[in-house]
Design brief:
Residues 35-45 have a biased composition (Low complexity). The protein has 334 residues and is of the alpha+beta class. It has 10 helices and 8 strands.
Length: 334
């Protein structure tokens, strides 16, 4: 099949059903999903729980195995630097541990900000101390923990923990344009927050003061920007489907149960309105019986946003197959 020609407003996410992500093979046909038994549903719902417990266990191992390695890496520094570094490490570890113990949307943002920083610190400790059993375990566990907290299953577990009543929340894939700015700003945040206090502890005022000032600004500003990405959800509620995304949308979109005609993986020739950002990967198309109003978030060119009416919309959940399987319990899928 030749690649489709993208027309104005057409999504770049069209895909055939047999090219889906995890779980999408079973989700491509509505009949198969609709007849899924209790065992299959239970298994799908348990996967995010497994990811959450994996993150908890790995984070405990980081504390148990990493303490000696991090301490030895600072052993040749002044007492003030050692104390400052130890306090920073334990504060970061304890903050993530608390969020993993009491999961929620804020915990998702914090975990995805701090846990990868732990992997960076583990690399720095290995360079300073050399590779041995302790540093190897620390490198491995922090890397695995980073992979787990970055997974769609972990994200689903964290956002679902903050859900109300019978709603099912599914995290949306970040718009592609956000990846590079987010990665660069995260590196600035980690570098400034880690090195600023250590430089001050070492009495390097010339460099330490401006770096700490930068750290103060970015710690105040950037986490709120990161948190917006954690609050982008497709939500299945008893009354229908809700698209909660204040990055792409100016207003939440509500698709009422009786008006939803079909939910499926988006095809290449779809004419549905693209609400993904746009984001990479597979998108889900939701078709409605009556045009629904959609208001896009404001931009520099259109500060008040842009309003359209659409009979179909596209969203890009991190795990499309899980959304289709959950939707099939009461909505037409396929």
């Amino acid at each position: 099949m030749p690649p489709p020609t993208k027309s104005p407003g057409e999504s770049p996410h069209g895909r055939e059903g047999d090219q889906s992500n995890e779980g999408d093979a079973s989700a491509a046909g509505g009949t198969q999903i609709a007849t899924t038994g209790r065992t299959g549903t239970s298994s799908r719902r348990s996967t995010p729980v497994v990811a959450l417990w994996a993150a908890r266990l790995l984070w405990l191992v980081v504390a148990a195995a990493g303490g000696a390695g991090f301490g030895d890496a600072l052993s040749d520094r002044s007492r003030a630097v050692q104390l400052t570094g130890t306090v920073l490490l334990w504060v970061g570890w304890a903050a993530v541990a608390a969020m993993l113990a009491l999961p929620g949307v804020i915990g998702l943002t914090l975990s995805r900000t701090v846990v990868p920083a732990g992997a960076v610190v583990a690399v720095a400790a290995t360079v300073a101390r050399g590779l041995d059993t302790s540093t190897a375990v620390t490198l491995t566990t922090t890397a695995l923990a980073t992979l787990v907290v970055a997974s769609g299953e972990f994200g689903e577990a964290m956002v679902q923990a903050s859900a109300y009543g019978h709603e099912r929340r599914f995290l949306l894939t970040p718009p592609a344009a956000f990846y590079v700015p987010t990665a660069v700003s995260w590196m600035v945040l980690v570098a400034a927050a880690a090195t600023g206090p250590l430089l001050l502890a070492a009495r390097n005022w010339v460099v330490g003061v401006p770096v700490t000032a930068i750290a103060t600004v970015v710690v105040w500003f950037l986490p709120t920007r990161f948190h917006r990405l954690s609050r982008r959800w497709l939500v299945l509620v008893p009354a229908g489907v809700v698209i909660h995304d204040h990055v792409v949308l100016g207003e939440t979109v509500m698709l009422r149960d009786g008006t939803v005609r079909r939910i499926r993986l988006a095809l290449a020739d779809t004419q549905a309105a693209d609400l993904t950002g746009p984001a990479g990967g597979h998108a889900i198309e939701i078709t409605v019986a009556e045009p629904v109003g959609v208001v896009f978030a404001g931009t520099r060119q259109q500060p008040n946003g842009r309003a359209i009416h659409a009979r179909g919309v596209l969203v890009a959940p991190t795990r499309p197959g899980r959304v289709l399987a959950a939707a099939a319990e009461r909505l037409p899928v396929g």
